[in-house]
Structure formats: structure tokens, C-alpha cells
Amino acid sequence: MRIAYGVMGYGRGHAMRTMAVLPALGRDHEITVFAGGDAYEVLASRFDTVRIPTIGYQYGSGGTHSLPITLARNVAPVADLLFGGRGIEQVGAAMRERGIELVISDSEAWTHRVAQRLALPRISFDHVGIIAYCKPHFPPDLWAAGMRDGWGYRQLMGVPERILISSFYRAEPAYPQVHVIGPMLRDEVRAAKPRDGDYLLAYFNKGEHQYLPHIDRALRLLDCPVRVYGTRHRGIDDNLDFRAPSVQGFVDDLAGCRAVLSTAGNQLIGEAMHFGKPVLALPEPAFEQRLNAFMIERMGIGQRGDLLKLTPSDIDRFLGGAARFRGNLGWHRDQAGAGDAHTQAIAWLADSIDALRPRGRRTSPARTPTAQLRGRRFSAAELMQ
Predict the structure, then answer these.
(1) Which of 91, 217, 288, 334 has the largest CB neighbor count within 10 A?
(2) How far apart are CA 123 and CA 174, in angstroms?
(3) What CATH number should be reported for the domain holding residue 67?
């Protein structure tokens, strides 16, 4: 089949999850990736990728999300999505030109909306669906925000024919077409062997805004080396080793670190769990990341902190509890099914694609097998009651 794979462009986690399944899907189908923002930068050199609009949080001068700037910069793209503007027309034209027959989307709204317009079958494969398509599992202080965001996500994306959710923790589906699996691991992650290093790995998904002076000071006061990803700095300065973006380099450093300090994205948390690395989660001020940080602490596999108020004692307390966190990681990793989630996802997607295939068409290989691997471098009302 000719498949459009939409990838949310804010941050790199959506692209990392996509990279875990595209090679297998490309062996049997013609895949065109539709992505913008950070995801486009990650995927375009490896796959046939169409650049599309994206929406996301905007930062102010204080290192946190700015509601006025976010609203101002997202008014036009949201209007495009809701009322059918230039972006919708461009995505629709690209899909028609390629003869797209089915859409898979990782939290990507334009491909969802165009698929609905063109009456194409849809598969949702992401983590955010755990908020929108599973029964509410939010702590009291996040309950209202969770119900709001779940409702908003369903309004924007709809309820697709098939829904696959990859998560480092379990939740109960609210729809019969929902299936929940453990963390999706890229080939590089599954191939790497965990090691016990002496350094802390620090990652910031928007380091130009998040790597604030008080965080730099807290890391410099530690009595261990720190390898830092996501900032504009490069090279070694005191105990800090600022590193450039690198898929393989980051995976190697994750596999060999003592523990992880990072923002609270689902993908990185799942990969850290796989390697048995505790996480000090500094969530962005968005519901999904705040929920992820809460779940890390509730599961006993790490600690949550405040990105804007982090102190050296917070990190010391986290590192002091690392042995206890590691003791809980193995059990939770097995419960999440991290070891075979990749195989489960490929099989589930293959079955779902076949089930949604237009009747009368038999399964056949794509005209370009590995499709586009360039050089191989590789119901809503009920929930509200």
C-alpha cells in the first residue's frame, strides 16, 4: 500500500519512535513521511520526507513556555487546520499526487485532518493517545488539565480506526480499537549493551531556552562528569562535556551513563528504562510531561524536579537514591514489555494495515521495497462524564 506517515515536529521523540518502525514497514509498503520542525530535520536525510507545517510551544525569556507567544504564533496554523488553509491544501495535494491509500500519524494533525477529508483509513501511533484514548489515570492536581487535553486532542485528531499507544507505563484503553504496548526502541538502542559509567547524562529538548544559568551552576557543582546534549555549547568545560547532536553517540552515552537528567519525554524515559538508568525528570509546563514525571516518581524509577528551581541538592538527592531506583527499574521494564514492544508494534501495524486495506486488493510488496530509505544510513462524551 501507499502510506503517508505523519510525524509531529515538536521535539525529537516522535521522530525517534518513527525511526523504529519505518524500515520494517518500508519493506512491504511505499512510505512517504510528512513532517515539519525538529522531526523533519531528523528524518529527511534518511527517508522520503515532505515538509509540512507544525505547531508547538513557544518560549519566553524566562526559560518556560510563553502563553502569549505560543498563542500568537499558533493562531494561523490552527486556523489552517480547523478551516482548511494553505497547509491543508498542500498536504492534500501531496497525498493525492502520491496516491496515498492509508495514513499513520504520530501526533501529527495535518495528516489526520487531510485523511478525514479524503476518507482515508487512519492509524494513530503515538504516546499522547494515552491521555485521549485511555481511561483517565491522572493525579488529583492534574485531573482537570488531563481531561481538558484529552478532549482537545480528540477534537483535533478525531478517533481513528486503529490506535496504537507506546508508553513506559500501562493504562486501560477506553475504546475497543486501542492497543497499548511498552516503549518503542530504535535499532541503535536495541543493539547497544548497558554499561555502568560514572557520568550523568543531561538532555534538554529545547536547550537554547531550558539550559539556564542555575542549571549550569548545579551541574558544575557535582562531583561527577556530566555529558550534556541539546545546548548550543560544544567541548569540555570543567566537569561538563557539551556534545553535538548524534543518534549513535547519544545512544552510546545513554547506555553507559550512571543516571539521566532530562525533560520528561516518553521516548527518552522508555529508552532509559531499557538500559536500567534512573531518571531525574524536569518536565516542561505541559500536561503530558508533567504526567510522565509524576509516573516516574510513583513507579519509583526516578525523581521529578522543577526545571526553573533545580538545585545541586536536588541532583544529589536523586543520585543518592539511584540504587533504589535501579532496583525498581527491572520489574517495571518487564511489566511494560519493553523487550518485545518493537516486534509487537510491527506485527500490530501489519495486521491493522491489512485489515484497513481496500477490499479486493491482495497484499503485495511495494514497488520500491525499503521505500525511501536513503542510503540506509541510517467516544469522547463518555470520557467526560
Answers:
(1) 91
(2) 16
(3) 3.40.50.2000
